[in-house]
Amino acid sequence: MSDAHHGLAPAAWLVGHRGLLPASGRALDVACGRGRHALWLARHGFETTAIDRDREAVAALEGRARAEGLPLTAMAMDLEAGAVALGEAAYDVVVVVHYLHRPLFPALLAALRPGGVLVYETFTRAQAARGRPTNPAFLLGKAVNPGWK
């Protein structure tokens, strides 16, 4: 069965804009869930690291990557448990889809190599009218925190 049937198809924007990414390098998929973006990155020549707090999802992703012989390492990590270090200038590509934890922004930017690409797709406040998430802390819009623009 294809990834689309497993709910593992990567975000259309990422796939459609492959040309904006480097040809290869190191990639990080943050809050990877079941790993749809990590798998896609690894299949497209990136040495990929995937991080999520769900240990079962991480174990399943590692098994799938191993079965396919992909250059992918998955790690369980709570990204909201205080200061998080993702490395310094360690990745050519950082991908975050449908996850928003504003205190993580400095670590994401620090993890990018000079000239690296950050792909960030998340929900706006308009999403609350359509369904989950509804908590403004997880939605982009006008400043939730007066310190953020």
Give your account of this protein's structure.
There is one protein chain. The chain is α/β, with parallel strands linked by helices and 149 residues long. It has a domain of 94 residues: 3-Layer(aba) Sandwich (Rossmann fold), CATH 3.40.50. It has five helices and five strands, in the order αβαβαββαβα. Strands 3-2-1-4-5 form a five-stranded parallel β-sheet. It is globular. It starts with 11 loop residues before the first helix and ends in a 19-residue tail after the last helix. The N terminus is likely disordered.
* Widest β-sheet, arrangement of strands: 3-2-1-4-5
> How large is the share of residues in beta strands?
15-25%
Query: How many separate helices?
Result: 5
Shape annotation: globular
Number of strands: 5
Give the fraction of residues assigned to helices: 25-40%
- Summing up helix and strand content along with how strands pair, one would put the structural category as alpha/beta
CATH class of the domain at 24-80 and 89-125: Alpha Beta
